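re the bet — no i am not wrong, look at it urself. input seq straight from the record:
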Amino acid sequence: MDLLASVFDLIITGLQKPTLGFLLGGMLIAALGSRLTIPDQVYKFIVFVLLMKVGLSGGMEIRNANLADLLLPAVFAVLIGVIIVLLGQLVLTRLPGIKPADALATAGLFGAVSASTFAAAMLHLDDVGMEYEAWVSALYPFMDIPALILAIVLARMANKKDPSKRNQKSVTVGYVIKDSLQGSALSALLLGLVLGLLTRPESVYDSFYEPMFRGLLSIMMLIMGIEAWQRLAELRRVAHWYAIYAVLAPIVHGLIAFGFGYVAHQVTGFSPGGVVLLSILAASSSDISGPPTLRAGIPSANPSAFIGASTSIGTPICIAIAIPLFTQLAIAVF
């Protein structure tokens, strides 16, 4: 009960902070019929700056880190992404009204990673004073890419068994890896990691990226809130099981990752904050690189189902509940 009370207090406190407040504000103005829009180029610029900041920070930390400490969490990140997709397929394909392609696209999207939610989690840990390894951002592609690959490969295998879909264009593993790495999210993040690792960007990091981070993240949350409400209307047109899955999945996936993170903590000294961030990587669902990759890789899947479940329900649940929940769980366990 004390844990639940602490989580509830953190949620109430979070409502007063820009991250969650701006997300809910975006949903509110969209619900009221506001025609407020943020230009797409502005949105792309914000995403780029946020991910460059996260990547630069991680690269600078990796430069001074023991790479052996990163190895086990990286292996666990791959395993977590695979487990989430397999678990999602197992659950969703057994529910009425859900097609295999839609189930795998949804599982793949929830197995992939949300860069904006991860950035919000880092900011939350900074606010509560919980330390973490900055190189945790390097775990992003280790979870994101395997989840997307597995979902698409499983969908293609299922299509081969369906005579009506055998003529669909094949999507190879190499294509998925290339498409993911070339996507705006991973490109910016990996660029930041490389620059942080190989150059000395501390001056521009301290004078530009760090001061801009909180303000740009608040605008990003506003955009996500508007899109979440818009996608909610689409979600109503498909099976309601997606909504139930989207509510439960962030918590279940986060708990799976928390267990792996606890093992990494015992073996390598992985920090409690690192365990929280690993949990949020798992609890989040991709909002930038995942949707276009899955649209191309599983063209028979209904975007209203997998994107609607992720954007309109999964992301708000992750930010409003999962982040404070796993933060408080880490405080209780460690």
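see?? The longest helix spans residues 202-235. told u. also Residues 52 and 247 are 30 Å apart (CA to CA). so pay up
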